[in-house]
């Protein structure tokens, strides 16, 4: 069984590969995906289908993302603390 951190890192690897099947396989059926208000796709998503939809929307805008820091919490939830993305055609 994968640790929560391994699942989070696996999700972002699958995200970069546009691998919907792996994203679905890694996500619990009741997955909750939360983006902050300033994100490209702000808000909270519930379930695998909504998770895939937000990923597909982000793929239209971002080439790749780099997970720079993940923090473990005692309650076994993880917080992605730093995530960087590149926009096609940008130098940043």
Question: What's the gist of this structure?
Answer:
37% of the residues lie in helices and 28% in strands.
Note the topology:
Layout: H1 4-17, H2 20-26, E1 32-35, E2 43-46, H3 47-59, E3 64-72, E4 78-86
Antiparallel strand pairs: 1-2, 3-4
Helix pairs in contact: 1-2
Structure description:
Helix 1 (4-17) runs antiparallel to helix 2. The protein contains three helices and four strands; from the N terminus they run ααββαββ. It is of the alpha+beta class and 92 residues long. Strands 1-2 form a two-stranded antiparallel sheet. The chain has a two-stranded antiparallel sheet with strand order 3-4. It has one domain (4-86): Nuclear Transport Factor 2, Chain: A.
The fold-level CATH name is Nuclear Transport Factor 2, Chain: A
Helix content: 25-40%
CATH class: Alpha Beta
The low-confidence runs, each spanning 5 or more residues with pLDDT under 50, are none
The structural class is alpha+beta
- Total domain modules: 1
**Order of adjacent strands in the largest pleated sheet:** 1-2
Strand content: 25-35%
The value of Rg in angstroms is: 13 Å
Question: Can you write the helix and strand succession as a string?
Answer: HHEEHEE
- The CATH architecture can be named as Roll
Overall body shape? globular
Q: Please count the helical segments.
A: 3
Let me know the average pLDDT: 80
Strand count, sense and barrel status of the largest sheet are: 2 strands, antiparallel
Distance between the termini: 37 Å
Number of strands: 4
């Amino acid at each position: 069984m994968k640790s929560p951190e391994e699942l989070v890192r696996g999700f972002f690897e699958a995200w970069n590969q546009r691998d919907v099947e792996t994203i679905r396989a890694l996500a619990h059926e009741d997955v909750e995906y939360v983006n902050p208000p300033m994100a490209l796709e702000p808000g909270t998503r519930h379930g695998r289908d909504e998770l895939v939809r937000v990923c597909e929307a982000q793929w239209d805008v971002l080439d790749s993302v780099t997970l720079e820091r993940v923090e473990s919490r005692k309650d076994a939830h993880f917080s992605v603390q730093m995530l960087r993305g590149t926009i096609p055609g940008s130098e940043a």
